[in-house]
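Our collaborator T.R. sent over the components below with a one-line note: 'Predict the complex.' Nothing else. No constraints on interfaces, no templates requested, no preferences about which chain binds where. So this is a plain run: every listed entity goes in together, and whatever single assembly comes back becomes the starting point for the next discussion.
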Amino acid sequence: MSTAGSRIASFLRGAAARFGKVPWREIREDAFERAALVLKAACFVHVVNAYVVGIAFVRPSSTVRGPSMLPTINLTGDVVAVERVSPRWGSLAVGDVVILLSPENPRKTVAKRVLGLEGDAVTFVIDPARGSAFQTVVVVLVYLLQVPEGHVWVQGDNIYSSRDSRQFGPVPYGLIQGRAFCKVWPPEAVGLIGQKL
Amino acid sequence: EPKSLRLSETRFPKQRRNPFFVKRPPFPSPPHRRLPSLGSRSSSEIKCRKLIMGKWSAMWLFTRKSVTGALFGLTISDRYGSIVPVTGSSMHPTFSACDARFPGYLKADVVLVEKFCLEKYKFSHGDVITFKSPTDHKQTFVKRLIALPGDWVQVPESSEILKIPEGHCWVEGDNAACSLDSRSFGFVCHL
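Returned assembly:
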């Protein structure tokens, strides 16, 4: 018992001595410097993503309602590169595909095409499926309205199944998060997103 | 302490002890001074070396530190919270009225704006919120939240009763006499 006790005591003394010899100050400074480097990298990535250019995954099931941007964006979803500089500069043009927060649910982002800036007159058809050459009486209701100040009019490319400004009205400019200018994935669809359909 | 047990020595050997060590300048390298590499010096030695560095190195270090500080500040103010002066007289008893132009700007109340609420968008009645104006996206307004989506609100001067649509809210300033708020521009999209 005493030999076990003395062995434990000597082991603990040896462990304490080794503990004291480990260069804790250098290890701590090293750890802080590396953590600071990781933080700086994370801040850099955030700033580039928010102010210069970012990547967005446009998925039909959660971001847009069904295939609302066909044929520009695929049914199964594309990854697009979104640049953040032109909405801040105010240099958006009619025909740009933009990523914006949905006015109906601020936690959802949707991708649509800008069809009218403030002051423009837009014509739109609420229910294009109802207008058909086979009907004797054409019941296509065409509306015309002027986009109010500080707002934009957005529509999906696939007007037959898209929930956009025809349902929720013109969207305030501040909801626009960026302009999608290029598709980067899948590889066979890589290319710039054009201004027209 | 015995030299063989210093951990930093075995991982980062000091260059002058090894005659075959090839001097490789770390990136970025100032013209005539090497900056200490990661982890091989204690902080007091780093401070001594900084005091004896040339002025170009000092300026380069200052630029690096200020860019790092700017990145860090931008990230914090975008994601977590920022400090903002409040101008204008539309929230009068809550924030003191002051001018947006130069001399009045210095007397503005300075507030802490927190952005943690934007994760879940759970606001309550009576919160003072900041939002981008629906008519001009470059201007930010500070008003009090009166009604949330799904509530019914009566427009003060007229007798119409409106229901707040999904994704919008009704804001009003505390100083009702001179406040540009939802009574003029209607519902505000969550911004």
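Summary for T.R.: Chain A touches chain B through 35 residues (CB under 8 Å).
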